[in-house]
Design brief:
There is one protein chain. This protein has 115 residues and is α+β, with helices and mostly antiparallel strands. It has 2 helices and 6 strands. The protein has a 6-stranded antiparallel beta sheet with strand order 2-3-1-4-5-6. The protein is globular and about 40 Å long.
Length: 115
């Protein structure tokens, strides 16, 4: 049984990017903004629930979050809160979306995309 979650970590959301040394990185994509200082480094990772809890300590305060998924189960991780919900049950997203909005994250960025 696979207990790993997939997810994307934006390096710029981390207070210390060395935490990436402790997770399994499966791919890296760099956003295509013209100005290098505006680019995001997006790491696709494979992590355990324990890894997710450790990563939550490294999210910068403010408009940042990470999310991870296994099948249809989603874990959304903000600096101060973690939410578990079902991807297919949009009603179960409410608390995570409301929290993200309260931090100033635009609604369109609270889409919790899975592959």
């Amino acid at each position: 049984m696979n207990n790993k979650y997939r997810g994307t970590i934006i390096e710029e959301s981390l207070s210390d990017n060395r935490v990436l040394n402790n997770v399994e990185i499966t791919s890296l994509k760099i956003s295509e903004e013209e100005n290098p200082q505006d680019r995001w480094h997006l790491y696709t990772v494979s992590v355990s629930r324990e890894d997710i809890e450790k990563l939550s300590c490294f999210i910068k305060a403010g408009k940042w979050y990470m999310h991870f998924w296994k099948d249809r189960e989603i874990i959304a991780v903000f600096k101060d809160k973690v939410f578990d919900f079902n991807y297919d049950n949009k009603d179960s997203w409410k608390n995570a979306v409301d929290h993200g909005l309260s931090l100033g994250i635009p609604r369109e960025q609270l889409d919790f995309i899975i592959e």
